[in-house]
């Protein structure tokens, strides 16, 4: 009888644990919905900026295209988060169903216990019969305990798999948002150099300060800093100069508190021009340093 009460308490603890898990999932669902609300706020802010801050027709068109692209990315992230919320909602419903099934099993065990107790009282008249029935009951109880342990192990395995999947999905969603923020900052970090120079201007330092602050927020990534030159001068010299420029940017970021292990630098010389080298403006654009996120 004491063993039956112990089994009852263990099953009751499992039911309570699954109830707590369902409540935790409901809380996570509310947090995910808050994230979606934040995304809607960002979307509204971007739309307001699109209306109020562009003064010229040309700037309006260019900024509109950029904002539309950002909105598309944000909506994509929003849809991904929405899918995760729906998945968690389905998981909560599954846990609620399992809780109901466990409660039914518990009720069945109570019924079996009551039936066994009644049988023990009313149908065993001799000492020999009592001993035989006791052995049979102990065998049934051992079998029930074995089934219970198997179900418990299965539930723990499923819970671990679910937790691992949720952690992976959460990390992937957070990394996507982080990459978007980093890409936005890097797109605005136009580090340029004068001809035949690797000295940073004050404006370039301000842009790099902002980049450094953002990089420090996301230490899960590593970054490669790529240096380029225009096509004036010898190719070997330009390759060396571009490497020095990229390393100059790396050293400045480290001086602003960025972990040196997150940064590598490399020069590419005249390779991959982004503008024509036939004009002064084009050559100015080609004398640049860009950032690349390495996962």
From TrEMBL:
GO cellular component annotations, sorted alphabetically? cell outer membrane
Q: Which UniProt keywords apply?
A: Cell outer membrane, Coiled coil, Membrane
Q: Where in the cell is it found?
A: Cell outer membrane
Coiled coil region boundaries: 5-175
Keyword Membrane attached: yes
OmpA-like domain location is 180-295
What's the protein called, per UniProt? Answer: OmpA domain protein
